[in-house]
Amino acid sequence: MNNVKIIIALLIFLTLxxxxxxxxxxxxxxxxxxxxxxxxxxxxxxxKDVSKIIPDTTINGKLFLxxxxxxxxxxxxxxxIATIDKIRESPVVVFTNKSKTEYLIAHQYEGSIKNxxxxxxxxxxxxxxxxSNTNNYNVLENNFRTxxxxxxxxxxxxxxxxxxxxxxKEEKENLTILTYKNTDYETSxxxxxxxxxxxxxxxxLKDNKTEKIKFGFNYP
Length: 220
Fold this sequence. Notes:
Structural class: alpha+beta
Distance between the termini: 81 Å
Shape: globular
Strand content: 25-35%
Number of domains: 2
Largest sheet: 8 strands, mixed
Strand order of the largest sheet: 8-5-6-7-12-11-10-9
């Protein structure tokens, strides 16, 4: 009888141990977030999988990528807009926010419809002194931000919590550059909808704060 009790006790102990191991394994998967844990406890980091990104396409919910009709909702005097050459690799239109502390540089690629912008660049006026003598358009927005609330000044941690960890990282002097990409046209409904080969988001950080944001389609 005593032997039976001992065997039953051992079976209960083993069952509880298995449940705890399973629970611990599930907790590891939750904690790892973007990471996965295999059966030999090795952590596999998927940080180089940069093809999966939820793209941002708007500025302040008014100005849209590759949409010429949205400009007049963003800037009331839209008919007076003119592009500037030789500032960037393609013609651009330069906007400033209400306090004239931020630039929004809208890129128009060759062959695009007039006032349909294929890439947006947000940066501080103080960091782009060479643009001070160029024609720019002042809008009533307090700052420039995307639909996921990406804006200048956010920290690395805030940025990562919004866009995830699937980025490429580059250290350049005192700057950190994070790049997110969507380059797989064949499997991307987003790229097919816009008929563009690839999409990117690039963030330049200094002292852990975002100093520059650039996002949109790569030049075809």
